[in-house]
Amino acid sequence: MLIANYHTHTKLCNHAEGMPSDYVKEAIRLGFKELGMSDHNPIPVSFLGKDLYMDNWCHRNMSYDVYKNIYLKEMALVKEKYGKQIKIYSGLECEYLPEHYDYYKSLRDDLDYLNLGLHFFKSNGKIINTYHEVDYKNVYDYAINAILGMETGLFKTLVHPDLFMFEYKNKDGKRQFDEYAEKASRAIIESAIKNDVYLEINANGIANSEKFGINDTWLYPDINFWKIVKEYKEAKIIIGADAHKLSALSCKAIDDVSNMAKKLGLNVRNTIEFA
Predict the structure, then answer these.
(1) Which residue, 218, 239, 209, is CA-closest to 7?
(2) What is the mean pLDDT of residues 69-93?
């Protein structure tokens, strides 16, 4: 069972359920010590162009107006109302395009923290969808984009760092964790350690795996990635619910990833340290 979660989405991001107050009340009921809200960040259409914006589902993120006029106000209200019962942090889950650093910095200035979650990234000048377009030729570019984000100091956690394995293809077109995936993984892990960024074991990956994958394995979390993390004793690891509904704060998926972590001997932190 979790006592804290820092990866929580609301209906304001257009593909989840509940408002911040609903999650806060549920977290209090469950006995949580801390809760971080981290809806998907607003992404200007101009960052990608209309077609890529739609292809990468950015229209499902909250709008900038909703972020400024509703989300921030809702977060202030729940902190004021429930702050004596539970520690509440305001945040966002962000993509990272290096040329727009100033935009991400402006978001961070509004909030307590940012999560880095790469659902798309740049490779050879093109936008690559992390779910469906990663292969042995571009997987290291995923790592480079993650590293560039972590090096900014803007992000507290790299959520679902192994998402690149969702439909990863090796040289034979098969989904297999190969030497290219390992090289990218080690670069990500080493950068997370260097930049004091937490790596998240994402419980929602199990639901996505069951929906889109095969029955005898998870598309993510990918156990091969976490076996490598085990080699790095300095790595900071956190379990994230990636909650899109209230029930996700306490569910079988969290138990399953917790058991995986225990079997691997991973040193999972209960809470995140905020400076």
Answers:
(1) 239
(2) 98
* Angle, CA 18 vertex, CA 13 and CA 24 arms, to 5°: 110
Q: Which of 127, 194, 204, 190 is nearest to 160 (CA)?
A: 204
The number of helices, as runs of H, and strands, as runs of E, in the chain is 10, 10
CA–CA dist 78, 65 (Å, integer): 19
- Is residue 227 within 8 A of residue 169, CB to CB? The reply is no
24 Cβ contact partners less than 8 Å away, ≥ 6 residues apart = 35, 78, 82, 86, 88
| SS3 label, residue 201 | strand
pTM greater than 0.90 (yes/no):
yes
What confidence tens digit (pLDDT) does each residue in 226-254 have? 999 999 999 999 999 999 999 999 999 99
Tell me the one-letter amino acid at 133.
E
Alpha carbon 124 to its chain centroid, in Å, reads 24
Helices (H), 69-216: 72-82, 101-110, 139-151, 179-194, 204-212
- Using CB atoms within 10 Å of the CB of residue 211, give its burial: 0 to 12 exposed, 13 to 18 middle, 19+ buried: exposed
CB count, 10 Å around CB of 114?
24
